[in-house]
């Protein structure tokens, strides 16, 4: 119910997966799909060259996105 309200009221809906965008377009139709955008998720490893790892009292901070489980 909340998802349907968001899609109906949103000016734009951004997806990090082309598959999700496709599924939503199929579910909500062409009129809603015109407001859907796909922006691939990712990073440029070179942007982090020369940065030292952050370390705190518990050791290094590690952030992990494991994807779909």
Overview of the structural elements:
The structure is a single chain. The chain has about 70 residues and is an alpha+beta fold. It is built from two helices and four strands. It has helices at about 1-10, 20-35; strands spanning about 15, 35-40, 55, 60. The strands form two sheets. A two-stranded parallel ribbon has the order 1-2. Strands 3-4 form a two-stranded antiparallel ribbon. Strand 3 and strand 4 form a beta hairpin. The protein starts with a helix and ends in a 9-residue tail after the last strand. The mean pLDDT is about 90.
What layout of secondary structure does this protein have?
Blueprint: H1 2-9, E1 13-15, H2 18-33, E2 36-38, E3 55-56, E4 59-60
For the largest beta-sheet, the strand count, sense and barrel status come to: 2 strands, parallel
Lateral arrangement of strands in the main beta sheet: 1-2
Number of helices: 2
* Portion of residues within helices: 25-40%
Distance between the termini: 24 Å
Q: H/E series, N to C?
A: HEHEEE
Structural class: alpha+beta
Please report the total strand number as a whole number. Answer: 4
Compute the average pLDDT.
89
In the predicted model, the low-confidence regions spanning at least 5 consecutive residues are none
Rg is 18 Å
Strand content: 5-15%
**What is the global morphology?**
elongated
């Amino acid at each position: 119910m909340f998802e349907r309200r968001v899609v109906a009221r949103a000016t734009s809906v951004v997806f990090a997966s082309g598959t999700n965008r496709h599924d939503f377009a199929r579910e909500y139709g062409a009129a809603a799909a015109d407001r859907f955008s796909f922006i691939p998720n990712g990073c440029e490893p070179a942007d982090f060259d020369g940065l030292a790892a952050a370390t705190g009292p518990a050791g290094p901070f590690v952030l992990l996105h494991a994807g779909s489980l």
